[in-house]
Amino acid sequence: MRGLKLVFKNGFAHGLNALISLLFVIGGARCLSQDDYGELRTAMTLLPLLMAFSLSGYDSIILRNSHMNRAIGLLRIFTLRFIFALFGSCLLLAGLLIFEDRLSASLRFFLFVMVVLLPFFETGTGYRNYLIGMRLRDVSLNLLLRTRLFSLLLLIVFWGFIYGMKLAPIALFPAYLLALIIPTLIVFFPVALRERNACTNKNKNLKDSWLSEATRRTLYSALSMTLAGLAYTAAFSVDKLWLRHEVGAAALASYSLLIMVPQEGSRLFDAMIPLFYRTLFFTKGQKDKKRSFYAFALVPLVALVYVIAFYYLSPSIFGEAYRYDFLSVALSGLLLCGISFEFFCSHNVFAKAGSRRLLSFTVTNLIVTIPVVYVSLIVGSVNGLMLGLFVKQIVVPAGFLFIPHAFPFKKGL
Hints:
Layout: H1 2-31, H2 34-50, H3 58-67, H4 74-98, H5 105-117, H6 126-133, H7 137-164, H8 172-202, H9 213-246, H10 249-272, H11 277-281, H12 286-296, H13 298-318, H14 326-353, H15 355-402
């Protein structure tokens, strides 16, 4: 019963996040031209790749180390992430200046916004996994709910200001990022300060923590995790970037809306896994594991509901330019199940074998994805692309999980 309560609370928190994303998508689709909205989706596709500079892999390290009762150092991690992300902003700015003439005016604006806000975006998310690892799941979810509600309120206020001041619709992008950044940092720092004070009270000799072996090992592991995340994000983005290159921004706009809900639904599944991390990966009780798996069996049901609702409602919500045939919507529903399966397998590989093993998993996934996208687009256009991606999402993770002699697990960082 407690596990079910956590599932619903976490689902509500992620539902708020999905609502924020949906409002952003509706605002962009209705207020921007199809070409400008396609450029916005291009920027949103590049953003997760650029987040590799902020060492996003630290979130998984925090979750694993806190479950294993290892030192964390949230403030130290935030500082490292900020510095690396600032370096990424400098590289992005250099690229923006070099290729300025080749970019549309809207894409130049979106990229410049990313230059400014990248060091702050998703660098303060570690409090969630830290509290979960400390067996404070309710506290973590309560703070997450407050953060999401605050973000939703800020987004509405910012958009009201844009509308009232009659600003250009492209201002929706910085408003969206700021609405996510500000509440996250407000919640993160009190948790990080309490964690630092608790560690200081236990150990007075923390002056060498920046140079300690434990810090270096954690940084190396975070780098490995980030590279793994980058490889997975690249595999996740190849279809969009390739479609943008081959067909254009308008086609990317249409495809992005079609797969938006499957991606958000699979991220909800991914967000559920840390709540059951100890049960799934660190205990041997089969009965408890079966109870956890029952909660995840909702994924196909969510996919079915999505297919029916999106097919009938998408023209009314996003406009007639975004009307799809039933086969396309059904294939995108398969992606919800496929991406969710990939997420579970990535957690499983990391928990059981460490960051190095996860890196090999994600690199393999990327290597397979590239020819799948290329061949699928040639053979079957967008529908063929989605079917090819679904097959890849099942076959590659299944190989790592169920063929141990082909992909032997080895313990790592």
